[in-house]
Amino acid sequence: MNTEAAPVKMVVMDGIVMGPQHCAFDNCTASLANTYGGVFCSVHETEYEVKCRVYGCTSPKISGTQACHQHRSKWLKYQYNHTSAVLAGVR
To answer: Which domain does 47 fall in, by range?
Structure first.
């Protein structure tokens, strides 16, 4: 979504987390609160569950998305670029 995003610390494929299963928050090594699609530990999940997921943004996210109004267009582009048709090479 954003070129300023934190480095990828884990890989999630079909809901299966591969690699380190710790919180994606900077310098946090706590276990994930939800290993099925979750990215934060229970402390950071509570703190950031309603905030925009763009790195460095603390605005509230829009319902049904992972971004705020300011970053909505980036979220929609990210979501489109990660559809199964696009990932399969069909445009």
So the answer is: 11-87
Residue 86 DSSP symbol: H
**Predicted model pTM:** 0.56
How confident is the model over 51-60, as pLDDT tens digits?
998 888 889 9
- The Cα 16–Cα 36 span in angstroms is 6
Nearest CA-CA partner of 71 in 81, 62, 84: 62
The two beta strands, 16-18 and 11-13, are antiparallel
In a domain, 6, yes or no: no
Tally of domains within the chain? 1
In a domain, 5, yes or no: no
